[in-house]
Amino acid sequence: MSDHQHNDDYVGTGLPPVSPFTRFSRVHALMTVGETTMAIALADSLFLSISPDAARTKVILFLAVSIAPFAVVSPFVGPFIDRMKGGHRAVVMLVGVLRAVVLVAMAWNLDSLTLFPLAFSALILGKTYAIAKSAIVPSIVKDDEKLVASNSKLGQVAGITGFVVAVPAGLLQLVSSQATLILGAGAFIAAALNAYRLPQLKSKKTVDAQLESEELHSSLVVNAANAMRTLRGIVGFMFFHLAFWLRGEDAGTAWFGLAVAMSGLATLAANFAGPTLRSKMRESIMLMASLVAICVAGIFATWYDRVVGGIILAAVVNAAAAIGRLAFESTVQSGAPDANRGRAFARFETQNQMAWVLGGLIPVAVSPSGAVGFAIVAIVGVIGAVNFARSDSGIMRSRGARATNRAHRLH
Fold first, then answer.
1. Is 142 buried (19+), middle (13-18) or exposed (0-12) by CB count in 10 A?
2. Which of 84, 100, 211, 339 is the most exposed place for a label (fewest CB within 10 A)?
3. If DSSP states are collapsed to H, E and C, what string results for 125-194?
C-alpha cells in the first residue's frame, strides 16, 4: 500500500491526511511503552532485589547475554530486514507480535532460568526493531537536512512516552510483575497493528556492492562510527560504575534511581536540542562537542568527588550520547545513500552494543572508587575527542584539496 493510498483513508472524513512519519511516530511510542513496562517488570527479578555479590555474577551474565545475539545473529538480521517480503513495515509488524509473545512467556517464567533465553530473544527483537527504525527514517524523510530533526522527534517521543508510562506501569508493578508484562504485550500488539498503516518501504533490490562498501567505509562515516562507539562505551561504563559504587553509599539505591531519572531527562532534553544544534553546525561538530562535554564533566566530577558530581556526569554522558547518536544516524543515512541500510545499521548496532558491554564490564569486574571511575570517563573522552578531531581535520583538508583541484580544472 502506498503513502498516497494511506492518505486517501481520510478523504471525506474532514480529517487532514496523516504523514508516514506521524504514523511511524505512533508505532515508535507504542514500542516504547512495551520496552518501558518490560524494564520495570524485570527490574526486581534481574537486578535490584539481589545481594551485591550475587548481582555482580548476574550482571556479567546479563552482559554476556546482551552481546551474544549480535555475535551470532547480526550477520543475518540486517539482510533479513532488507529482504523481508512486504518491506520494513512487515519487519516492524513481525517484531511487535513476537515481542508480545515473549512478554507473555516471561510473565509465567519470572523465577525460572527460562527467563534468560527469553531475555535473549527480547534483546534480538529489540535491536531488530532499532535497526529497522534507523533504516525506515530516510525512506519517509526525503530531505537529508531534516534527518537530525526527524531522528530527534522520535527520541522525544520515546523519552516523553517512557516517562508518562512509567507511573502507571510502576503502580501496576505493585500488583504483580505479570500484570506489568501483560500491559507491555498489549502495547507491542498495538504497535504491530499500527505498523500495518505504514507504507511498504523496501530496500534497493540491486545495489552495487563496491559502491555500498565505499560509502560505508568513507572517512566521514568511519570517523562518526568510531566516535559513536566511544560514546556508547562510556555510557555502559558509567551506568554500571554508578550502580556498584553507589551500593557502598548511604541511600545508594535512591541515589542510583535519581541518576537514572536525571539521565533520562538529560537524554530527552538532548533530543529537543538536537535540531537546533544541527541548524548551527554540521554533524561532525555535534559529535566533537559531545566528546568534549564528557571530558569537561568528567574532570569536574573527578575534582568534586561526590555522589552529586557522579549523577551530573551520568546526565551529561547520556545527553552527549543522545546528541552523538542523532549526528551519527544522520551521517550514515545521508552519507551512504546507495547502501541497504538494514545491513549497515545491523553492523553499526553490533559494534555499538559491543562497546557498551565492554565499557560495562570494567566497573563490574574491577569496582573502582567514584573518583577513579570519573577520571576514566574523562580520560577516554579526551582520547576520543583528540582522535576524532585529528581525523575530522584530515577529512576537511582532503575535501578542500579536492575542491581546489576541481576549480583549477574548470579554469
1. exposed
2. 211
3. HHHHHHHHHHHHHHHHCCCHHHHHHHHHHHHHHHHHHHHHHHHHHHHHHHHCHHHHHHHHHHHHHHHHHH
Q: Does residue 20 have a pLDDT over 70?
A: yes
DSSP conformational letter for 386: H
The architecture that CATH gives domain 14-203 is: Up-down Bundle (1.20)
- Phi then psi for 145, rounded to 5 degrees? -65, -20
Supply the DSSP string of 237-285, one letter for each residue.
Answer: HHHHHHHHHGGGSTTHHHHHHHHHHHHHHHHHHHHHHHHHHHHHS-HHH
Distance CA 121, CA 102 (A): 7
pTM over 0.90: no
Is the distance from CB of 395 to CB of 223 less than 8 angstroms? yes
Q: What is the mean pLDDT of residues 81-104?
A: 82
The total number of residues shown for the chain amounts to 411
User: What are the pLDDT digits (tens) for 282-293?
Assistant: 889 999 999 999
Contacts of residue 171, defined as CB under 8 A and 6 or more positions apart, other chains included, come to none
**Using alpha carbons only, how large is the chain's radius of gyration in Å?**
22
Q: Is there a contact between 340 and 277 (Cβ–Cβ < 8 Å)?
A: no
- Fold designation for 205-339+368-411: Growth Hormone; Chain: A; (1.20.1250)
Nearest in space to 239 (alpha carbons), one of 156, 351, 321, 127: 321
> What's the pLDDT tens digit per position in 213-240?
676 778 888 899 999 999 999 999 998 8
pLDDT, position 1: 41
The single residue listed with the C-alpha cell 533504516 is 135
- What one-letter code names the amino acid at 385? A
Sequence spans of domains, the chain = 14-203, 205-339+368-411
Packing angle of the helix pair 115-140, 341-366 (nearest 10 deg)? 140
Q: What is the DSSP string of 105-123?
A: HHHT-TTSTTHHHHHHHHH
